[in-house]
Specification:
Chain lengths: 82, 411
């Protein structure tokens, strides 16, 4: 597993909370985030890293963890996918 | 009421942070070490596979590579370590407000009052181990006891990601005395010459006897060994006031003459004075530490008649101490300057009829002007010629080479 750093469009609300809205995978694919199931501090033991973990449901009903670590967003993915 | 104190120690902290971001390093021998180019090339932390190969903390990179040629060396990333240290500390603060740091990776927690909210000390220990591992990705060893010294010993004895409770002296009686906080190599050698080998031996000796052989330190060790350490875990909610401020430096080459020493002392004095001014404090005692090329350390100190916050005063005292106590029979590897007896108020003193008050006032104005320039444009905007003359030796600003983090001095 590796960390793939991604661009993310976020909403910073009046209460100071950050909510990721859309994940920009590459120049073509933009994946909207339908809902967020859980936000908690977690480390990623498989891909490495540690930060705030957002359990996101994407439009395709796919559930994935999105990590926010010191100003950067990343997802965990298998090496062979790239 | 018996206190419940935890000592939490992050296991091989620097190496763990590196492995957290590079999981592939978990299975291979890896160590974090300083840069040999700047003569900081010693092992700062190592992982378990490296430990199995015999790599030890504080040995040189070459020694480590001889034992383990496949050892992977990583350079330290201090901002990252500070970030994780702060995160772990804020997690501790969810359990108690009495958290006292001891270096970057260790903390004492007084949880006496917290037990009634969380159930039991064991539950807090279990919670901390679980949360630090899962939320932050690091592992802890936790020592639990009724005083800080036994708690620290407990964390030293505990395995990785485990807790160890020490309830009485009987449990640690047979351990070697050098496992106890405050017993270093030379103290242990001294104790051994008096047939004191274990913590039990130390605890059984009369107080007067220990005072006789080790002075004040003997009394402290007597209390430590008998579990009579009553020192409080410092409350983080109250602001901590530094007791001393110090900086030391290992330049890129050894120091052979007084010019070299003056140059290094200029940088160190400027740096210490800058930190003093930041705190708004005055000092009245200056300490000088020297380490020669054989790694022998000497320390000396002198007092000022009137307290001050001037870099010039620190420099003059340090140079005087050096000239009076040291010679160049052997080159010097590193120097350190510290100031202590700190206070927030400038002492009002009788004007010296025969001293040059006007000169000292002028010097103060000069230093304040220099400080303002450096505050606005950086240290390198205004430097003494001495520093520019030997860039190889001085090639750093005063804040670039602070070996001892501030918190070490806030006890």
């Amino acid at each position: 597993m590796i960390r793939k750093y991604v661009d993310v469009i976020c909403l910073n609300d009046k209460g100071g909370n950050t909510r990721p809205l859309c994940l920009i995978w590459d120049e073509v694919r933009k994946i909207p985030i339908t809902s967020i199931k859980e936000i908690c501090p977690r480390s990623s033991l498989k891909a490495g890293g540690s930060g705030m973990r957002y359990t996101c449901v994407f439009s395709s009903r796919l559930v994935r963890h999105l990590f926010y670590d010191r100003g950067k967003w990343y997802v965990e993915m298998h090496d062979h996918v790239i | 009421m018996k206190r419940t104190i935890l000592h939490c120690d992050l296991n091989c902290f620097f190496a763990s942070v590196e492995m957290l971001y590079n999981p592939e390093l978990r299975k291979v021998p890896m160590a974090v070490a300083g840069d040999p180019k700047f003569r900081h090339g010693i092992i700062l932390a190592k992982n378990v596979p490296a430990k199995r190969k015999g790599v030890k903390t504080a040995e040189t990179i070459n020694e480590a590579l001889q034992k383990c040629p496949e050892l992977i060396i990583r350079r330290p990333d201090y901002p990252s370590y500070q970030y994780f240290s702060d995160r772990v500390r804020s997690l501790y603060e969810e359990y108690t407000d009495k958290v006292e740091p001891f270096g970057i990776d260790e903390c004492w927690l007084d949880i006496t009052e917290s037990i009634r909210y969380f159930g039991s000390a064991e539950k807090i220990v279990k919670d901390l181990l679980y949360r630090v591992r899962n939320e932050i990705g690091l592992t802890l060893s936790i020592g639990q006891s009724f005083n800080k010294v036994y708690a620290k010993l407990g964390s030293d004895l505990a395995a990785e990601n485990c807790g160890k409770k020490i309830s009485s002296l009987a449990e640690i009686r047979d351990l070697p005395a050098d496992r106890l906080l405050g017993v270093g190599y030379s103290t242990y050698e001294r104790l051994k010459s008096y047939n004191i080998f274990t913590i039990g031996d130390l605890a059984e000796k009369p107080l007067d006897f220990l005072h006789g052989i080790l002075g004040k330190n003997g009394e402290t060790l007597y209390c430590y060994a008998n579990g009579m350490d009553l020192s409080e875990v410092e409350d983080t909610s109250s602001s901590s006031i530094p007791k001393s401020i110090s900086n030391s430096m290992t330049p890129s080459r050894d120091l052979y003459d007084m010019d070299d020493v003056r140059l290094v002392l200029t940088i160190l004095s400027d740096s210490v004075a800058a930190r003093l001014v930041e705190q708004g404090m005055y000092f009245s005692c200056v300490h000088l530490y020297v380490r020669n090329s054989r790694l022998q350390i000497r320390s000396m100190q002198t007092s000022l008649r009137e307290n001050s916050d001037l870099a010039g005063d620190i420099f003059q005292c340090a140079v005087r101490l050096f000239e009076e106590n040291c010679d160049f029979s052997m080159p010097y590897r590193s120097l350190g300057v510290a100031v202590s007896r700190l206070s927030f108020a400038k002492q009002i003193s009788q004007t010296d009829l025969f001293g040059n008050e006007i000169y000292s006032l002028k010097r103060k104005k000069e230093e304040k002007a220099l400080e303002e320039i450096r505050r606005r444009f950086g240290y390198k905007a205004a430097m003494t010629l001495r520093i520019l003359e030997d860039q190889e030796l001085s090639g750093m600003g005063p804040d670039d080479d602070c070996f001892f983090p501030d918190e070490n001095f806030r006890r």
